[in-house]
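User: Could you check the structure of this?
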Amino acid sequence: MTVNQHSQYKSQQKAMMAKFFILPVVVLLALFSMATLGMKGLTNADSMVSAKALNPNDCVSGVKLSDLSHPSDTTYSYYDTVQAKWTFNIPTDQDIEAGDTLTLPIPSGLTPLSDDSFDIKSPNGDVFAHVVVDKESGTVKLTFEEPASIANKDHAVKGDMELPLTFKGGAVTPGANNNIDWGINGWVTPVHIDPNDTPDATEEIFKWSYFDQTDENLIHWRVRYNALSNMTTTNGTMTDTVYGTNHSLVASSIHAYVVNYTAGAQHYNVVSEIPASQVHQTGTNSFTVNIGNLPSNEGVVLEYDTRITDGRISPAYGNGATFTNNGVQGPTADAWQAVTKGGGGADNNDTPVNPTPNPTPTPTPTPTPAPTPNKGGGDNDNGGNGGNGNDNTNTKKATNQSKNRTRNYTALPSTAKQDNHAGLIFMSMATAIAAGLTGLFGRKH
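Assistant: Sure, the predicted structure tokens are below.
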């Protein structure tokens, strides 16, 4: 072999070796990509099992309305606090999975005092569902957790949920029979709501409260003085004190007005605003207003705000207002603003459990009469904290509704064995190629 021939042979050998080296690398990269896509495909297939929305008609076996303010009454008062109770019996064919939801409508004519959230737990503390109460949308949404899914594999999930509510202004008629529609299985609870009373002619001072429409931690307070009692006020003062440390006074919100009450103290006309110089903050959570001298046909409306500071963990927030007239102190008007505090319980072995008791503020806020004055016309302040006075259990048989159990199943079972399968294929092919390379480059030419 000549030198030139030897050189050509070496060049051809190098080119051939380069080809055989590049090809396996390309194959390895391709296999790696395929394995990655395969494992990703399994992951994507897993995600195709989306959470489903359960149908309340299939899951709620009973409802009940009872009175928290006056349990022994046979009729309802517009400002009572009522308690709605749902009983669950979720059969195994619902196939609950973690993340599935059940949305219940707030019964017609009723509204929660505020937004709320809480857990429904089994007796041993397992969280079966997380509950969110949305006042604006009028819904209660349950999102199920893994313990509910496990329990539902072999038995029906049973339990109860309770929620304090009030009558919704404009949605019910005082002095008449009203039908409370639960929006489930056609169940309706008939209630008779007593007529609204006018203030007592001897009432000297009265107080009420309500939540801000957009700020769940802001409470508006209103005090009316000398609405119908026809007192002549001499060197009068009004003092207000916030109770506890769970909410604080918003000093800039204090306003007081001299007014003429009309229409049984349900409305008023503003005579003048009391100057800010006559408002004196006497402590972090208290203040006094000098109202001076007023004729018997004039009274005062005092308004201010407090802000919740404890994360809404208290069942209610309170304060009290009093007055002095000609050096004599009058009675104190207390008011408590309750928050919605729902509760519930679930079984873990087909055993119904009693729901967690619902905290009730002390004293229970039951303003009488309807505290809805306004400034000479227009919409009234919505100050009612509601309830009703009976214990009504619905007995209407549930109608058979279509079930919503649509699911997207994976193309392959989502198990560790399947996930590892693509990796094993990749490793086997890589080993085979490596063996081939060893044979190729280990061969002597």
